[in-house]
Amino acid sequence: MALHGKWTKLLKIVDEDSSKWLRTVHLKPPTEALIITAQDQALRTNWLGHYVLKTAGETTDRCRRCRKFAETVMHIVNGCPMLAQGVYHERHNQVASALHCDFCGQYQLPRGQHWWEHKPEPVTENERVKILWDFTLRLDRLVEARKPDILLIQKASGSNPQKITIIDIAPRDEILAEKEEEKISKYQPLRMEPERTWGGKAKVVPIVVGTLGALPKTFRATFRANQLDITVNVETLQEAVILRTFSILQQHFDLPG
Ligand SMILES: [Zn+2]
Question: Which of 2, 7, 31, 185 could form a disulfide with 27 if both were Cys (CB 3.0 to 4.6 A apart)?
Fold first, then answer.
């Protein structure tokens, strides 16, 4: 079976901790059950019906929504062109906003009572930090304009110089590690303008969270390596992404809410 062990294979490149999310992330039993079934590639997708179960009447392996690609679990949770601008985009924003909420808490800035109620302001600032949300950097014509999610300026204090961090969030599954490298190189040209505007060194930190809750092995190391002095509440990000993936699956299979 072609998809056999795909999730197991994925687990080999992800942080072992991310498989422990069931114990740390508080999910309702139906959410947990559906996510586990998705991880096991055991959802009744058209692909599964067509090639594996060979159910009578299941004549196509194509996605019931876009009718263009094979309907695998990965296609539904992360690859369907019909969902990209809608629910995938909302999921991305939810994860980014959960992270923004986390940062606000660490810097004693105003924030929503819970991450899911948090509404990031375009600029949040105090004497220690300035956080820009969904900020578009103006680039020269040669570089395609891109939008990082969070721009964090940790202000100079004592002998520590000002630090600028561009944080880009991607809920993704396929080869989490490669994605991270791709993101780092994509954002390199973006460092120049913040460095000119605010002074100090800028760094690009990609945050890649699997749509079924997996994290790349390099996740924690990324923060240490960049000396970000930030602790990211990983469980919150996993919870944010899983809850959105759950509703994507629910809608796709028309499951009761
Ligand atoms: Zn599709």
Answer: 31
Could you tell me the distance, in angstroms and rounded to a whole number, from the CA of residue 175 to the centre of ligand 1? 20
Q: Which two tokens stand for residue 80?
A: 């369907």
Q: Are 120 and 95 in contact (CB under 8 A)?
A: no
Dist. CA 74 → ligand 1 center (Å): 10
All domains of the chain, ordered by start, with CATH? 85-242 (3.40.1350)
Using the mean position of ligand 1's atoms as its centre, give its distance from the Cα of residue 1 in Å.
Answer: 22
Q: For the chain, 257 residues long, give each residue's pLDDT as a single digit of tens.
A: 344 455 445 444 455 554 555 556 778 888 888 888 888 888 889 998 888 887 766 678 999 999 999 999 999 999 999 988 789 989 989 999 999 999 999 999 999 999 999 999 999 999 999 999 977 665 544 444 456 689 999 999 898 889 888 887 877 765 454 555 665 666 677 787 788 888 888 887 878 888 888 877 777 776 666 666 677 788 888 899 999 999 999 999 988 76
Q: In sequence order, what E strands does 105-239 have?
A: 123-125, 129-133, 150-154, 163-171, 201-209
Pairing of strands 201-209, 163-171: parallel
How many angstroms separate the alpha carbon of residue 88 from the centre of ligand 1? 12
Determine the distance separating the centroid of ligand 1 and the alpha carbon of 116, expressed in angstroms.
28
CA of 43 relative to ligand 1 center, distance in Å: 15
Using the mean position of ligand 1's atoms as its centre, give its distance from the Cα of residue 64 in Å: 7
